[in-house]
Design goal:
This protein is of the alpha/beta class. It contains 16 helices and eight strands. The strands form two sheets. The protein has a five-stranded parallel beta sheet. The chain has a three-stranded parallel beta sheet with strand order 1-2-3. Helix 5 links the parallel strand 2 and strand 3. Helix 5 packs parallel to helix 6 and helix 6 packs parallel to helix 7. The mean pLDDT is 97.
Amino acid sequence: MSERYPAMPPRNPNPPYKRIATEEAWLPPDMMELYLKEIREKNINEPGFNQLWGFFAGDSELAQNHRRRIQSLGEGRIADMDNSGIDIAVLSLSSPGVQLFDPATAASLAVSANDQLAEGIAKYPDRYAGLAAFSPLDPENSAKELERGVTKLGLKGGILNSHTLGTYLDDEKYWSVFEAAEALDVPIYLHPNTPSPQMIEPFLNRALDAAVYGFACETGLHALRLMVAGLFDRFPRLQIILGHCGEALPYWLYRIDFMHGRISSTGRHPNVKPLKRRAWDYLIDNFYYTSSGVGWEPPIKYVMDVIGEDRMMYAMDYPWQFVPEEVGALDAMSITDEAKKAFFEDNARRLFKI
């Protein structure tokens, strides 16, 4: 019987690749203050946010260290990267980002956050890259802010923290931001949020709402809604990134493909029409995947085998799951040197144009 947590070997001190971590969270201090205010006053009906951030707003050592780390764009974060062997971090606004707020407030906060992120990157241009936040329920401004972030601020794509106040973006009226991403040739990272108010109740009383399970359920659902709605038929060059080894979707690939094909071909449901390609094809051709929060060789190799070595990237999920030892474990993976370099460096450089 294998050990529950296999021993992690020390990391390679001189690897033949740079390590680019592609899902690293950041939150500006002014937004942290807004989160803490919401925790105190509970003005927004988001039970998942209240449960998750209610803990991280507390006085425990874990919560205090988390707040310190997630707000840093300076020496503290750089020191953690150095101590972990991370050469470059792709930073994005931590969940739920601006999406906790009404569209107008969110749009204003996104502009401010993107400006602050760009300023932080400018101080460490060899160590940081970043993704632009936007207000998903404000379609016109979301596309404009993504374009500004990429063309004016030098950001490398967009961050969508999944549902926004219970709304998913499979409705075509929100697709201008995806149109902009395809035109700009940049990806959108579909990052988890806690399950929406419509689905969260059975998760809450066993604390299954966040990273342990709820994140994957909620974000995988959003990804499939986008696919089934025909997003990639409209924008065939669009690329979406999924973390955490694909929020379980690669493991469901066969069944998703088989059952979607059956449902769409039989006309069983009015909102599931036949697509131009198989579900299998979209999940391989229009998605990239990262290892965030999964410092374990077997599932990473599975995604490489099923999806492709050119579609899998390294991420740590700092500071939500800060495990520096995982770097050594993944340095030691039993894959080719070419695949390892693609995983840690080349795929991210190509996708983000780093």
